[in-house]
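Shipment paperwork, digital attachment
Item: protein structure file
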Amino acid sequence: VSTQSTGSSGLAMGWSDDDESGSDGGWGPDECADCGCDPCECNLCQECMQDPCDCDETCATCGQMPCDCADELVGAENLANSYDNVKFENEEPGIDEIDEVVAQYREKVIAAEKAEMSSNESLYEDADEDYAKPYGFKAFKQILKLYFKKGKLSPEADRGALSDSILKAFQEMMDGVTGNGQFYQRMCMIPLQKLIERGIFVEVVSPGAAWKQPPEVVESMFCQLIKVSEQANWKAHTIKAKLSMLSFYLDTSKYDLMPEIMAEIEAFCQLSREQGGAPENVRKNSLMTLKSIQMEYHYSCPAPPSGLLDRWDYIEAYFNECMEVMQGENAIVVSDKETEGRIYEYGGMVHMLSSEYEQAFNTFQDAFKTGGGNGNEERRLNYMLLAWMHKTAEQNQEMVRVKLALAAAAATNEVEAASKIDPFADPEVASIADSSLIGPMKSLYAAFDDGRILEFNQLLGVHKDVFAADPFLCQFRGTLEKFAKTQAVLSLLETYTAVRISYLSEQVALDLEATEALIVALILDLSLIHISEPTRLLSISYAVFCLKKKKKKNKE
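Attachment content:
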């Protein structure tokens, strides 16, 4: 290499030189006087006559930058450097830049790792602990994030191809886990666990995702994940993946594929650690998730001709099993909020069907507070309001029973009114109070709470489709109507010393015969109205008269 004449020596350019003449035959010295770094072994190229640390030219002999070639990275350390460079130089790529970033990950990390491992199978095994990480796996994870980001920002017409790209990248990712040797496979164990529990995989397959994937793509991804977990003999991974797959089948109504998987998981959860099972806490949490899924399966699966109630024994049994684990002597904390919310939601249903309205309200409230998205909060709030109206009606009826009993005994004790609780006073409830999904039940609650029975009955008719669309709400439409009418009758009987049946009929929006039947039912409930006492309210005499009149007609 010829040296250009610049009128200055190598020393003037920042390089030390023992040759007093300053002549080195066109090559610089061995050490930079400014930063102390070593130039490359072939010595410094002097063509550009710049400080080696600032030089933009490559060495004419080796083709590398002077400072870079001295500390050339190799093996796993080089892959780590390449991965970090691509990641941190492209932290927030625009939609038009994503394909280029994906190409960089594929070329500089994935392809480079494959080439390195083809010539050195112990690449990671021999590496320093800080660099023993599956950088190809990590690169694929970034690629999935990039494709998912692009899909959310792209028009609908472009999303099909991007879904295919996600599936292809995921399949390559899974192939790499088991296809790069035992050591690589072991390195992937924890990253894969994180992917199943909270990684980009969870975001992609979630039914509530901003960009929901086609069912066939999600199912294929689950199958790939389970296949790899089984090949690696990672039993806990396999169970968690299968539990997630069951949730996917619930969401897509593929009920016929669920029983076999549920049986497999249940059998595994019965195994102790000594028998090849998972640690106890993992096993019990998996069992809780399974029981919650089984509850939803029996509730959501197409009902038999005899109706939903025929399956309720299963749901109640699963709920009781969960309570034994969650509240027993060796109770555990359920780690998955979705599971916990589902358990409490179906527990509230169990209490409602057992007429335990106070417990139902509290249990629905517990379900509501777990959150979970996907419309869960609104549905659970609707169930809370349903339980609230039932428990309030029950409390009011009990208060009237006590008053009538005191009146029958000529007692003057005052009956303390039950304290009122406003469900919407809770900040978490108030935050979704204006949601259209709870509008119908909210209006019913307001009319019920104010004693506007005529309006309440009208609203029941207006919102009949809301009840018809929800099998559980539909189950209680009749009792809501009956409670409301009973509440109105009791309020009137408590207010007036005498009242005509025709007036009661108008207030509860029933014909005379239905009103008489309602009052007869109240009289026959001896704990409610003591018809044998001479001090009974005058209004009861009218009801007794109607009852006698009805019996006389029947005899005739």
